[in-house]
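Dear H.,

Thanks for agreeing to be a second pair of eyes. The structure we're designing against is below in token form, covering all 86 positions.
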């Protein structure tokens, strides 16, 4: 379930709430009754490592299977993306 952050406009209280996406947002502060505003937070999602492109896709010549693609210089059409063809 996603975690949402809200800040009260009256007392400046910050709360984190686990809510379903389908649930309505909080509108009133439970402490002072002021209006709550939903905040946009930094994501905890990080991409690390080489990834699919660096580990396999880029080494095969423009997204084609290296075994099925013609070699450079044989009309393989890899000019512009293959270092050997430039």
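And this is the sequence the design step returned. I haven't edited it by hand at all.
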């Amino acid at each position: 379930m996603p975690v949402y952050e809200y800040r009260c406009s009256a007392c400046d209280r910050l709360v984190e709430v686990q809510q379903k996406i389908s649930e309505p947002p909080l509108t009133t502060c439970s402490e002072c009754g002021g209006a709550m505003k939903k905040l946009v937070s930094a994501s905890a999602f990080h991409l690390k490592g080489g990834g699919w492109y660096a580990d396999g896709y880029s080494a095969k010549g423009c997204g084609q299977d290296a075994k099925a693609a013609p070699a450079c210089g044989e009309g393989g059409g890899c000019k512009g993306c293959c270092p050997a063809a430039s």
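Two observations from my side: The first strand starts at residue 3 and ends at 8. The first helix runs from residue 51 to 57.

Warmly,
E.
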